[in-house]
Amino acid sequence: MPIFEFSCQACGLRFEKLTKIGEEHNIKCPACDSGEVKKEFSIFSSAGSATSSGNACFSGG
């Protein structure tokens, strides 16, 4: 499940919520319980390193 970032239109709180895709419209603000929340644009990255080289040396130790 992805983590989405939301902002409450009633109280202004910004919060994150682990939500199933397609259910982000059912979110309520954890501070004021308002259903007037807006999904914000968030940037994500995956952990790990990227290399352009396909060569890898593994020592069998």
Give a quick set of tags describing it.
three-stranded antiparallel β-sheet; 61 residues; mainly beta
The gross shape turns out to be elongated
- The first-to-last residue Cα distance is 38 Å
Mean of all residue-level pLDDT scores: 82
Give, in order, the helices and strands.
EEE
Number of helices: 0
Low-pLDDT regions: none
Describe this structure in words.
This protein is mostly beta strands and 61 residues long. It has a domain at 3-39. It contains no helices and 3 strands. It has a 3-stranded antiparallel β-sheet, with no helix packed on it. It is elongated, with a radius of gyration of 19 Å. The model has no long low-confidence stretch (mean pLDDT 82).
